[in-house]
Specification:
Elements lengths: L1 H22 L5 H22 L6 H19 L3 H20 L6 H5 L1 H21 L6 H20 L3 H23 L5 H19 L26
Helix pairs in contact: 1-2, 1-9, 2-3, 2-9, 3-4, 4-7, 6-7, 6-8, 7-8, 8-9
Length: 233
């Protein structure tokens, strides 16, 4: 079981993700959607196996976040419905990370570039949404932008490297998706969106093992200077 969890599932996730991104044709749609969801099912299974047997609140919240993001994958053909599912997923991630902050001035200062990036994105996205005749989406898009920014900052504040990198990749994925949908075409957008998305979810799933400070019986994370950096976990 340890080998399956440590190597088997991650390799299978990579294979199925690559199949969806590079091999499976767009039609028939049902087949494409199925292959889109398979990596997320595997990532949820991986997170479940990575979490300790005595799961705590933070573990359950991360699992719920993964589940609702998986729903968002399947429902994104109805954009507002899919966006709502992803928003709920991010709220679960945010709730999990908020309770696990490890305060340092360097981590706290990350709010500045995250806020600046969010403001710049909003300054392009919101006018494009309105000009494109999607005025009803202004509030949902703005709310989503705020929540994912807070989620990213909270992940960084945990001091857990996999959670932080995963959250940043999630922001990148959704930024490319939103820019491509509302502002202008991004070359190879589908590839960039899904590569960063699957990587983000896999890393967030990987972080579940130590998000609560435990290790579920595997090797302990390697510590580094907690005043300046992120712990590899």
């Amino acid at each position: 079981m340890d080998l399956l969890r440590k190597y088997g599932l991650p390799v299978l996730i990579l294979i199925m993700s690559a199949l969806y991104i590079f091999v499976v044709p767009d039609e028939p749609f049902a087949v494409k959607l199925l292959f889109k969801l398979v990596p997320m099912w595997l990532i949820i299974a991986y997170a479940w196996l990575e979490s300790p047997k005595n799961r705590k609140r933070s573990h359950i919240l991360l699992l719920l976040g993964l589940f609702f993001c998986m729903l968002g994958d399947g429902l994104l053909v109805w954009f507002v419905v899919g966006l709502s599912a992803f928003l709920i997923g991010h709220l679960f991630y945010l709730s999990a990370f908020l309770g696990k902050w490890r305060f340092t001035k360097w981590r706290f200062a990350s709010v500045v570039p995250i806020a600046a990036y969010s403001i710049v994105m909003a300054s392009y996205l919101l006018p494009a949404v309105k000009d494109g005749g999607n005025g009803a989406l202004l509030i949902p898009v703005l709310l989503y932008l705020i929540v994912i920014a807070l989620m990213c900052w909270s992940a960084i504040m945990t001091g857990r490297l996999w959670a932080a990198v995963g959250s940043v990749l999630f922001v990148i994925s959704d930024s490319v998706l939103a820019w491509n949908k509302f502002v202008s075409d991004v070359p190879h957008a589908g590839i960039w969106i899904m590569v960063t998305y699957y990587a983000a979810q896999l890393l967030i799933a990987r972080s579940i093992r130590t998000i609560d400070g435990g290790d579920s019986g595997v090797s302990q994370p390697r510590p580094i200077d907690d005043s300046t950096g992120l712990r590899l976990s």
